[in-house]
Design goal:
A three-stranded antiparallel beta sheet has the order 1-2-3, covered by helices on one side. The chain starts with 6 loop residues before the first strand and ends in a 27-residue tail after the last helix. With 275 residues, it is mainly alpha-helical. It is rod-shaped, with a radius of gyration of 39 Å. The chain has four domains: 62 residues, no CATH class; 32 residues, no CATH class; 94 residues, DNA polymerase, domain 1 (Orthogonal Bundle), CATH 1.10.150.130; 58 residues, no CATH class.
Length: 275
């Protein structure tokens, strides 16, 4: 034959009159000529010869395997992906089996939010978090539950959460606040095996160029003048409050100031000791 690595199947009559099917062709300069009793056997041999020719020209290897064709293709794709990497496929598989955790059970988002909110309510009752912070969590969760109805916690992807954080043309500060609250909730979910990984780890915080300015700090001279003025106001009854504010930077009702016992100074005492 004139064509390299090409094969044909022809009907062939032997000298004794028996009909056979012959596979003929050339395989890299070697002439191939085989007879078979049936056309099916000849066709199978032709297909195998084509595979052999392809293997020799493209560095393919013919192996016997129990893998399906799809599994073989997946394995080939994985080996291409790790080509040039310092670790073998076995090492990477062992690492994944040792560190990857499937969710223990699918947890509906509504149930997870309710459980987390109950935990935060107990923390508020134990004076671990403030009432305004608990109110903020409640408000965010009400919107989060409506935005992802009938979702499980494991269905919250990084792309879906990014869209949720950006809704309503949110400012950078609002975006970061939303991400922070959801990220803390998902850390709680991860600890309970509701999710295999925290998707907010793939979502970076937005950098805010201009930070909010801080309040001016009083100098020692100004603090002394303030306390001198407070001493002369109603017998110095406000001295403990202003002393605490100057030393601790307490702010309003959310600080520890409102939990201090209130007592009126006696006529002979201003409620504090002067050195």
């Amino acid at each position: 034959m004139n064509h390299e690595n090409s094969f044909v199947v022809r009907r062939f009559e032997n000298r004794n009159g028996v009909i056979s099917w012959r596979v003929a062709g050339w395989l890299h300069g070697v002439r191939i000529r085989k007879n078979f009793k049936s056309q099916e056997e000849a066709a199978a041999e032709k297909a195998e010869l084509k595979v052999t020719a392809l293997r020799l020209t493209s560095n393919l290897r013919f192996v016997t395997t129990c893998l399906t064709e799809a599994e073989v293709r997946e394995a080939e794709g994985v080996f291409r992906r790790i080509s040039g990497k310092p670790h073998s496929l076995s090492f990477l598989v062992d690492y994944a089996l040792a560190n990857y955790r499937e969710p223990a059970r699918p947890q509906p988002l509504a149930d997870a939010l309710a459980e987390y909110l109950a935990a935060k309510t107990r923390e508020h009752e134990q004076h671990i978090i403030s009432a305004p912070h608990l109110t903020t969590i409640r408000r965010h969760f009400a919107v989060l539950g409506k935005h992802f109805p009938a979702f499980s916690v494991a269905q919250l992807s990084a792309s879906a959460l990014t869209t949720y954080f950006q809704r309503g043309s949110a400012s950078l500060k609002t975006y970061n606040n939303r991400r922070g609250i959801v990220s803390t909730f998902l850390k709680y979910a991860f600890q309970r095996d509701w999710i295999a990984s925290n998707p907010t780890e793939k979502i970076t915080c937005r950098r805010i160029a201009h930070r909010r300015g801080s309040a001016a700090t009083l100098s020692a001279q100004q603090a002394q003048e303030l306390m001198t003025a407070v001493e002369g106001f109603r017998g110095g009854c406000l001295v403990p409050f202003f002393a605490l504010c100057l030393s601790q930077g307490a702010r309003g009702r959310t600080s520890g100031c409102h939990r201090l016992p209130v007592s009126q100074p006696s006529d002979n005492s201003r409620g504090y000791v002067r050195k």
